[in-house]
Automatic annotation (TrEMBL):
Biased composition (Low complexity): 57-66
Organism whose genome encodes this protein: Dichotomopilus funicola
InterPro entries per record: AtaL (IPR015075), START-like_dom_sf (IPR023393)
Segments for region (Disordered): 52-71
Protein name: DUF1857-domain-containing protein
Length: 180
């Protein structure tokens, strides 16, 4: 087994982007992505939510009441990847998705593969989106040719996922995609 670690970052509002997205709009879009990943990530064909739960985050207090901003929201889902794509080369994987408002979502698959979606700010205050991946791949020799091939494939997939997510959020804000 080999672990392939990589990350991809893109500006959320590059010059000329319209509309300019706010942090709240981006967070709303990422929350929706957990439920409807197929609208955001081209290699995912279907997404089914199995369960949900809210838990206070470590920074919340008893006085936070029903304010959902201080809660970690956990969603367990099944994500189906198109044949030949995704961490297993296609098929369905179970993921536990932990939403940490307002800037981080962690996805953990049953084999330990993890994906993080992060919204941050660059040196000039610009919004950035980064996806960090740790893919665990069975049957691949560390340092071998197949590992290098997978690194290239996964790097392309990471770029598509980040840029596709930003564009989908922008389409939602423009009213071109309806959140259902």
């Amino acid at each position: 087994m080999v672990n392939i670690n990589l990350a991809y970052t893109a500006p959320i509002n590059p010059p000329g982007a319209s509309p300019v997205l706010t942090p709240a709009q981006v967070w709303t879009g990422l929350q929706y992505k957990v439920r409807r990943a197929e609208k955001f990530v081209p290699v995912i064909t279907h997404c089914e939510v199995l369960s949900e739960e809210n838990a206070p985050s470590s920074s919340s207090s008893a006085s936070s009441g029903s304010d959902n901003t201080n809660k970690t929201h956990t969603i367990t889902r099944l994500a189906t990847f198109r044949a030949g794509a995704g961490p297993k080369g296609g098929g369905t994987v179970k993921e536990v998705c932990k939403l940490h408002p307002p800037c981080r979502i962690d996805f953990v698959q049953e084999d330990g593969t993890t994906i993080g979606n992060y919204v941050s700010r660059g040196p000039e205050g610009e919004l950035m989106m980064t996806y960090v991946f740790e893919w665990r791949v069975e049957g691949v020799e560390e340092g071998g040719e197949r590992e290098r091939e997978l690194e290239g494939e996964f790097a392309k997939m990471a770029k598509l996922a980040v840029e596709g997510s930003i564009e989908t959020i922008r389409k939602i804000v423009r009213g071109e995609i309806e959140m259902d």
